[in-house]
Amino acid sequence: MIHGSLVVIATGSNFSWLIDGPIVGVYLLATMVAGLYVRRYVGRVEHFLVAGREMKVYLGIASLAATEFGIITCMYTAQSGYNHGFAGAVPGIAQALAMLIIGWTGFCIRPLRESGAMTIPELFEQRFGSFARWLAGVVIVLGGLLNMGVFLKIGGEFLVVVAKVSFGDISPHYTIMIMMGLLLLMVTVYTILGGMLSVLITDFLQFVVMSAGLLVVTVMILVYVGWDRIAEAVSQNYGAAGYNPFVSPKLGWAYVVFQLLLNTAATLTWQTVIARVLSAKDARTGQRIFTRTSFFFVCRWMIPGLWGMAALATLTPAAYATLAPSMRQDPSLYAMPLFLSTFVPVGLMGILIAAMLAADMSTDSSYMLTWGSVIYNDILAPFRRKSGAFSERRGLLWNRLIVAAIGLYLFFFGLVYKIEGNVWDYLTLTGSVYLSSMSVLLIACCYWSRANSWGAIGAILLGAAVPVTYLTMQKLPATSDLANNTIGPYYSGIAAFVAAALGMLVGSLLKPGQRTEGAIV
Q1: Is residue 52 very low, low, confident or very high in pLDDT (cuts 50, 70, 90)?
Q2: pTM of the model as a whole
């Protein structure tokens, strides 16, 4: 590749514990106080999981935007900009279009909110039975936790690279472990105590801080690096492929089709997104949250993508020598924080790190809560029925224990799992473990009167089988080359949606006897 000259030689970091440290500390203290303050209002499970269904439009917009932008988001979108130029923004455009159209029409989300369900599998029980609800919950949690399992580690790596955090002579591996633990502790405390109410309040604060940090850094990049220099770097490194995904040898039509399918499915059924609809005051409020947040998803990809392209334009190969040896194996993921570490001046570095912590805490807290809600509301539903109705106090205790258990899982999974390929490809595949089938089930549940339990179970099993098989093939020496170089993540992702649709169609048509009750609408 051809790289421009360095803006600043990346040998250290501009982070100052004397100036930037207090900025970060004050922000973290304010967040914790706000998150813990609303604990007094959490008296019922409904308050904990869906904030009593009283969320209004502007709080919903801030919460959804904050939740869907974390350090992990910043890292994989910057990596996409670094590796693919402007063509890497296709997923953001796809989700913005999906959110705008679905919010405008109310497709699926209106009947979902009007059903009164607290999770998507709860709605499925009305059409497909209790086993389909339980199985859907298992697959949602499997895909969700596999997806989220790398969040803490990448968040810790970002802080280590951008601020050059170190603890004496401790190795980078253990430094990252310590940062993961600190991030987890802060998020888990207020999420366990306040549930969705804490998440919504802290999300609002985090949205303000995050937006300020993103805008300031982006303006600085445009002023001091310059649009022309960034565009020139993309053209020199990737040519037309840096602007057109269809001519890119690494992307192509399969990439675009998969992103359209995936982002439409995510808008309909990604639990952290749909939780805002379920927490909304009514269906109309949920639709307005979607339409008014839609453009944010273009910004979510373009702003960090621009940061990644700025790193492409300014860093030389010698700059990566400051990275830990394990990070040099795939420097594209760490190019953006390495660039920011010396580009952002003292003082503004504190605002940047506060903004990134804001983004990460809002994402982690919401994800932990939403996966926990599925475990409690759907996977444990049969066991709760057998033991009798849970009291509100007992239900809150179980939900808090589940969130704590998810936190421990995230810590240890992040330490041991190594991603094969780009982070975004891993996230899309793990997400499609359940997005492929849940989107098919939701559409069939709402609009196809012939859909039944056989079709639902077939869609769930086949939709999950394809990406799980592909991820397993990546890890096996005998099949890793076939998976990575012949099949690829995009064909595998498309196949998951096709398999889920076929499972629903064939299973529903094969089931003998009377049809189930008609579609919801």
Answers
A1: very low
A2: 0.80
CB 444 within 8 A of CB 503: no
Phi-psi region of 417 (alpha: psi -120 to 50; beta: other; left: phi over 0): beta
Q: What are the tens digits of pLDDT across the range 432-469?
A: 888 999 999 999 988 988 889 899 999 999 998 998 88
Taking the C-alpha atoms of residue 20 and residue 226, their distance in angstroms, rounded to an integer, is 26
pLDDT tens string 229-239: 999 999 999 99
Q: Do 429 and 493 form a contact (C-beta atoms < 8 A)? A: yes
Q: List CB contacts of 106: < 8 A, sequence separation 6 or more.
A: 283, 287
Judged on CB neighbours under 10 Å (0-12, 13-18, 19+), 151 is buried
Cβ neighbours for 109, distance < 8 A, ≥ 6 positions apart: 102, 103, 268, 274, 277, 283, 286, 287, 290
Q: Is the pLDDT of residue 92 over 60?
A: yes
Q: Which residues pair with 280 in a beta bridge?
A: 55
* 470-498 mean pLDDT: 86
The one-letter code for the residue type at 45 is V
Q: Where are the alpha helices (DSSP H) in 417-512?
A: 423-447, 453-475, 480-481, 488-510
